Amino acid sequence: MTEIIPGIHWIKLPMLDDDAGLDFVNVYVILGDNGYLLVDSGWNTDASFAALKNGMAEIGADVEDITQILVTHVHPDHYGMAGRIKKLSGASLAMHHIEKEFIEPRYVSMDVLLNQIDQLLLSNGVPPKMIASLSQATVGLQQYVVVTYPDITLHDGEIITTGLFNFKVIWTPGHSSGHICLYEPERKIMLCGDHILPTITPNVSVHPQAIENPLGRYFDSLNELKHLDVELALPGHEKPFTDFGKRIDKILQHHEQRNGEIMKALGDKPATSFQIAQKVPWGLKNSWSSLPDFHKRMAILETLAHLEMMSAKGQVDRLPGDDIMLFRQASPPR
User: Fold this and answer.
1) Predicted TM-score (pTM) of this structure
2) Which domains occur in the chain, in start order?
3) Average pLDDT of 29-45?
């Protein structure tokens, strides 16, 4: 446990063993007039619960003292233990109203969502023999989630108050369609979730649960946050950081560079997202074939997100077709 400022505490919870590159997920415990607000919850594992309990003990409190839980988005490393904590403490749970709609298809009745992912991959050129391994790459993770539904659904601009702090809810779609950040203007603090991370960029993909043009919406929300006065950013992974505006600029530059890599991979002939993704460098030390299935799926659908954004800008053309979606570089205007 680390005290960020008086009343705001940072606790690191362990990730699963196969979460390559990420050692922990951050949760923030915030003092209020009536107990504590917990922002995000970690995976539902005994190790994660023990780390949270130990961190609360350092504050001089227990898990039962949590009276509010706020989830920035319902990906399992941020939402997984919320149900366990809610049952133990009686805390209320809040999340964006869009995220509420994802819980049942993602964690309870998964067949429809899995079929939608199958169709999305097929329509973007993934060979049928690869579909099952890619679409089911995350099946089984629901064992680390205690399903629970929010008591409070949030909208952009609402204020979450603890009595000591007043956080403005900012809707930041991209990494997830109902992702939110929390801004405390008096202290100039931003709780970022996965929207802005200090050294890595969150995956922004086309997905059956994704908002239209997710990468374009991600850019819009980054540019909205850039104008706010933020002195300290508290991310969902890695360490708190201070160069908030510069970090946003670097993320935007990273995606513009990726656009260039995708255009180069596309070349002068129509191609599918699957074909293009295999030619993008991705910073890989090894070959595309060595990537785990889930990473291949993310790469294909992140490539598609870039192509959709460039299509909206008129930089690539989406070609009509009955089964397979093809893209080509847009012809220069005459």
Assistant:
1) 0.94
2) 2-107+146-251 (3.60.15.10), 111-139+257-329 (no CATH)
3) 97
